[in-house]
Amino acid sequence: MAIRLLSKTYWRGTWIRFREPVDDFAGCEQATVYAHDGTQVRGLYWTPKNNPRPRVAVIAAHPRVDFSQHYAYPALLRAGYACMGANVRTQGNDMTCIHEQIILDIAAYVRWLKEERGVEKVVWLGNSGGGSLGGFYQAQAKASTDERLKLTPGGRPTALPGAVMPAFDAFMITAAHTGQGQIMNQVIDPSVIDEGNPLISDASLDMYDPANGFMPAPQWTAYDPAFVKRYRAAQIERVARIDARARALIADQLDAEATRGDPAFAALPAARQRSTMRRASFQPIMTVYRTMANPNYVDKALDPSNRAYGCLLSDRPDLMNFQLMGFGRVQTPDAWLSTWSGISSNANLLKNGHAITEPAVVVNAGRDMDVYPETHSKAIFNALGSQDKTYIEFPDNLHYFEPGEGEADNAGALLQMARLIPWLETRVPL
Questions:
Q1: Which of 146, 185, 205, 243 would staple 191 via disulfide (CB 3.0–4.6 Å)?
Q2: What's the structural domain count of the chain?
Q3: Best CA proximity match to 362, nearest among 174, 170, 124, 126
Q4: The whole model's pTM is what?
């Protein structure tokens, strides 16, 4: 019997992009910008043909997904807003994603909009992983240079104190989670005993073991609350163990770098010099197995919503948990700490929401299979510092507002934008 593991909708990738032609009403140019640390990144700048020098631009980005042709842009362009699809340096592969670096890319795009195209106000469209990315950017942009982060979670110096980072003027946060690290805290499999041998499990912590209440897919499971509490605590413990491993690997490299920079280095034996230089140059890769293990995938009573069985990536998370594809599977130690560790990452909307005091709207997609109303959407809404904030529920829509059975491709996108554009026109008029 053939079993399809990858979702036939989400991983086609098409639902993130335009779902209608825009040639008749929009123009496009490539924006090549340089971050404060010298990194070059490229995005696509879309402008309405009836408003070629717009005063307001909406910008969207994601730590790894290409948002250059985001599905929300056509409706925004028809309404007269410019749209910047801002790809960052880790687009397509977040193995080396350091959030303290990629927000420098965002700053470069915002400066380009203001300095090169005369845009006066910039609105952040924080979709999916773009929500926590934009919240982290705003927190650092509004901090004084002395208050900005000087070190990454891995202990590396940042370029943030010296960067010019114009703040956003409004936020549209749609189908966004609280942070990639917060997602990892919820999906990592705590039954893994040995990071080097991921097929060995602690059966008492295996959510897919019938002995713990799991029902054969696609039957919904009803876990005992005591098991869920123990499970969640063990997830954080595994994240902490991986954090410790990442920090040890970084410390070993930093120790070698210090030895190499010491004046006494030249007097060391040649073999010792070689081994030290290799250690200083070596950057290990961490593989984090089994990251498709959120009890919410199979127990609908945990943060109830209209979602179907399974997760964003697969209808069979019990098997997908052992596949290559998954959240945060292959990372450098620095990227793990900065992006995927819910303990260490700074890209956390619950931590940074206070910095968002501008008008903000939070959209929850009720059929989303990895972003849940209480855990994510309402928690984000409550964390925002804005006095002008709006919560909108779309109970029957999926993560990227992709079409349901029998729906036109663009139906979900148009439904969402019919609510967001009037909100935007009221808060940030053209």
A1: 205
A2: 2
A3: 174
A4: 0.96
